[in-house]
Write a structure and sequence with these properties.
The structure is a single chain. The chain has 67 residues and is of the alpha+beta class. 31% of the residues lie in helices and 19% in strands. It has a four-stranded antiparallel beta sheet. The chain is globular, with a radius of gyration of 12 Å. The N and C termini lie far apart (26 Å). The mean pLDDT is 85.
Length: 67
């Protein structure tokens, strides 16, 4: 699924701003709709995931545990 136009994407604070492997999310969209959009920074025009708040929290926990 393609993300709606005009979405502001934010990169992971762990990416270091060097590009490469980074997950981006749309915090303003999440605050407005409750949908947590997540995408691969290497493919910004590609598909994204739409997660619930609980699923997004689980994704963060998994990332923190497995780095």
């Amino acid at each position: 699924m393609r993300a709606p136009q005009g979405i502001h994407w934010v990169g992971s604070t762990y990416s270091g701003g060097q590009g490469g492997q980074c997950v981006q999310w749309a915090p303003e969209h999440a605050a407005a709709t409750g949908e947590f959009l997540v995408r691969d920074s290497k493919n910004p025009g590609g598909p994204h995931l739409t997660l619930t708040a609980g699923a997004f929290a689980g994704l963060l926990a998994l990332a923190k545990t497995h780095g």
